[in-house]
Design goal:
The complex is a heterodimer of chains A (about 600) and B (about 210).
Chain A lengths: L5 E7 L3 E8 L4 E4 L9 E2 L2 E4 L2 E4 L1 H5 L8 E2 L13 H4 L16 E3 L2 E3 L1 H20 L2 E8 L5 H13 L3 E7 H10 L6 E8 L4 E9 L2 E10 L4 H15 L7 H17 L5 E6 L2 E6 H12 L3 H11 L6 E5 L6 H11 L12 H14 L9 E3 L6 E5 L3 E6 L7 E7 L9 E7 L9 E8 L12 E7 L5 E7 L5 E6 L7 H45 L5 H19 L3 H30 L5 H7 L3
Parallel strand pairs in A: 1-10, 10-11, 12-17, 14-18
Antiparallel strand pairs in A: 1-2, 2-3, 2-4, 5-6, 5-7, 8-9, 12-13, 13-14, 15-16, 19-20, 19-22, 21-24, 22-23, 24-25, 25-26
Chain B lengths: L30 H4 L10 H15 L9 H22 L1 H11 L20 H20 L1 H32 L8 H18 L6
Classes of the chains: A alpha+beta (about 600), B mainly alpha (about 210).
The complex binds zinc ion.
The site of zinc ion (ZN) has 9 residues of chain B, from loops.
Amino acid sequence: MGDSGKAVGIDLGTTNSLVAYVEGKGAKVRCLVVDEGSTLLPSAVAYVDGQVVVGRQARRLAAEHPREVILSAKRFMGKSADDVEVRRLSPYTFAAESGPVIRFALGEKSVTPVEVSAEVLRRLRAEAQARLGEVTKAVITVPAYFDDAQRQATKDAGKLAGLEVLRLLNEPTAAAIAYGLDKKKDGTFAVYDLGGGTFDISILKLEDGVFEVKATGGDSALGGDDFDRALAQHFLAQLGADRAEPKIVRAAIDAAKAAKERLTAERQIEVELGGAKIAVAREDLESVIKPILERTGPACRRALADADAGPLDGVILVGGQTRTPLVRRYVGELFRLPPLADIDPDEVVALGAAIQANQLAGEEKAHDDILLLDVIPLSLGVETMGGLVEKILPRNSTIPVAMQQRFTTYVDGQTALDVHVVQGEREFVQDCRSLARFTLRGIPPLPAGLARIGITFQVDADGLLTVSAREERTGVAQTVQVKPSHGLTDEEVERMLLESYQHGEEDIASRLLMESRVEAQRILAAADKQIDSNGDLLTGEERTEIESAMRALVEAAQGNDHRLVNERIAELDRASAEFAERIMDRGIQRAIGGRSIDEVSESGPG
Amino acid sequence: MIACWSCHKEAGPSPFCSACGELQPARPRDAFQVFDLSPRYHLDLAVLEKSWRERSKKLHPDKFVRAGARQRRFALEQTTLLNQAYKELKSPLARAELILRSNGYSTPTAEAGKAGAGEKLPLEFYEEVMVDREALDEAKAEGPEAVQALASQVLTRRDATLAIIDRAFADWERSGDAAALGPAEPELAKLRYYARFVDEVEGRPHD
Ligand SMILES: [Zn+2]
């Protein structure tokens, strides 16, 4: 790869991909026409008759060759065979040989999602070279939620296509660059990205040449396709065809999509479906899609609260669905700002990527570069007793970042500690994504609670996590690089976020209960041990009192009321306070060789 | 005292060697030192943020993409330290705890599975906590408005606690006398409780 080649910006999308380029001395940035007169290249790749075809031509082959035409390889990037996306209903067959990476089976051969994406990139590169001369470098955009494996896969696809990937850029950041840098305007921006099948919201702050991601959120099961389906249902209801056959449903969805697009400019249209004519007003469309659109509200409010960044200076619209007038009105009302839409919402991400590519490829101007500061999209934590998650790094922490947390042993003489690293917002391990497990061995055998184990989580600037643990008394240390083979899907990330939102209250109640139970067990074990070794310090009456308090606590811990458990813990504490003091006295007396405390304090330190 | 890895001269306290300008490994420093600030509770957060950005621009690993592996590692260490220090100084609670610790007061360190347990609080405060808990249960049964009303009541008490903390730290900043921080210590424990309570009311899992 020579240094002479040009650098482009590429939006490698789920549905469509684009390539953009800065002309002259950063004068003008534009998207190149790449497929049948359009700047949008459908991200479809057909492997038919020993030929590879990309774009609209490939998409047209899909009906006839459902297995050989891959329509959205992006959904499979960085996924393994046990990922939800892979097991979901789809026309594709996956090659049987199992490895960390899935393969689409195409007759006798098979291809990975990385190879499919590389075909899309190759086509974009070829189209760009036809106009610009040699193209060797690119900034490629990825969703903010893409995990390490998905980012790595995207980078690999770039390499396969003969491109040096200068940087993987988050899509919302790219959109904000297209707006913010064009206008040399500092401020806080929301990027509202509504695509065909996904919704993303990011809050970014640009100041003094630093672009900081403050918060991100979204819902990957929400998009313009839902609008189409809802409108199609409305049509079918008008025709009285509630249980239509698949062909009619297909036709209704296509008619709905076309109607939605026409109603962007027109107020009243007529749709033909199944031989009937249906009159549709823009208001009809709006009343049908409004409830779906309103589902984007909670994620926006949550991102704003997470960002805690004060008033917004602008809202940027990304994604073809934001052309719909109602979407613009809704976003305007939601953020109390007229949304910025003067850049084509389909092109804005590629344009931002091109600006960044131009900047990174340019020499001798490192200090002019804007710095992009990203965040971790989901909280990181470790499993603690009772299957609870102890959060170590909250979501939206700026990276690189590290945090240390101290743990101890729960059993006398414990010499190993299992560390289970999870990612997610929920309170219980079972509801989060498991990232890695390792065992810290060689802890010196000590009574429970005496070992001091510091666990450090380090996330670097690329979002890669390293976990290390160290026993502080002995210096026993262990480090693991956490590189999940398949990683979190963006759907999973969002599902987890949504679930944590819905179950927050329920989680807290069960967490409190679980904590009180753990505490009860610890106290009961300690009391048992003390009675065993120092029972002679108790009168029969005292012993009965402590034991009945213990029984009461055991009973409470079996129930579901954490306050009752805490009350009984307090009662047991009270009942054994005197006893604990005597044990301590005995310990001190043993330590000072049998003299009484009074003697020692009287003789004084001198 | 600390030799530069590159030129072997005295490197100085800054992330970059004072003799040759090479990036140095991160050395343990507290958050105020990282920002070259003398410890203060009353900080101008806008100035702090600006300083954080300026420092990020010099230290971030992206600025060392073309440098050697060693410098890239130091950039990661330095930026991590910077981000940690920024996070600590941004939060009034963390900032206050840091000052208390460096003035010989003990502040509870978080331990796994025991969030908030084992803090020393005045007895009356435990009663307040119990009353709040019952009130929260009742308010939840009553509806979101009652929960909001309770939350704003707790926030009012939190503000009173913040005012006490504020005064104690202002006294300390004037006199430099660590004893002036005494009244702040129990109030910080209350502040932690209020933060958790409000998180819980708003259905937000605490960090
Ligand atoms: Zn030097």
